[in-house]
Amino acid sequence: MKIQPINKKLKLYGFNNLTKTLSFNFYDICYALTPEQHKEYIEYIDEEYNADRLVHILNTVAKLIGANVLNIAHQDYEPQGASVTMLVAENQVDCDDNVKIYDSESPGPSESVVAHLDKSHITVHTYPESHPDRGISTFRADIDVSTCGEISPLKTLNYLITSFEPDIAVMDYRVRGFTRDINGKKYFLDHKINSIQNFMSGKTREMYQMIDVNVYQENIFHTKMLLKEFDLDHYLFGVNKKDLNPVEKKKIKHRIKKEMLEIYYGRNIAKFKD
């Protein structure tokens, strides 16, 4: 049964001052052994996630949270990588200084979202890198969606995961500050949450292995995701799986899995068994 938001409204003193920040680290792994294959992979990443494409993604994020874009700064780098910083502000809407307190968690994006977003920003930075000898290349994208007011940036969660299709994702959600009602009582949270996972689609939860580390009393929520299954062809650059012998396929798959697990658990693994 779907739980509907309760109708209760909280009369605020002034603006909703809560700041909500959702941070992503997305990782994409690739195997490109030769210098030529590695060069082709970097060129592909720089084209697929250049500054213009990232601006398009962040513009969609801004629409999802109902923000007006004030300023965009974007830059492609040599030899590789790109950055985009976007300042956003609240939409002009009729408002009686009330805030709805929601009694349910639901995946985003929703069809219609209106929010107060003064002094808010959305940023993305990309970091392609590679191992010099073992053929492993790793692309990382760091994204921050920080908003002030009623809406939570968690509404952008499913869109961003779908846009980047990461092998590994590390996400942090934090609510900072407080807002007051007209009687002076402080509110440190204006929506219910016990896990970032609750805002993901069912398909995403099925595809990934997940770990939560949450500090409820501090309004800090942390989730890590690791893709459960993968096709080796998706990770090979410049060569097809059918062109490899069984020993080569096993060795490459071992290296890719080791890279993914080290990123997921945040430590080097000296000995790794499939």
List the main descriptive attributes of the protein structure presented here:
274 residues; alpha+beta; S-adenosylmethionine decarboxylase; eight-stranded antiparallel sheet; two-stranded antiparallel ribbon; disordered N terminus
General description of the model:
This protein is an alpha+beta fold and about 270 residues long. It has a single domain (about 10-240), classed as S-adenosylmethionine decarboxylase (4-Layer Sandwich). Helices cover about 25% and strands about 35% of the residues. The protein has helices at about 35-50, 50-65, 155-165, 200-205, 245-265; strands spanning about 10, 20-30, 65-75, 80-90, 100, 120-130, 135-150, 170-175, 180, 185, 210-215, 220-225. The strands form three sheets. It has an eight-stranded antiparallel beta sheet with strand order 3-4-6-7-2-8-12-11. The protein is globular, with a radius of gyration of 21 Å. The chain starts with 8 loop residues before the first strand and ends in a 9-residue tail after the last helix. Mean pLDDT is about 80; it is low at about 1-5 and about 90-120.
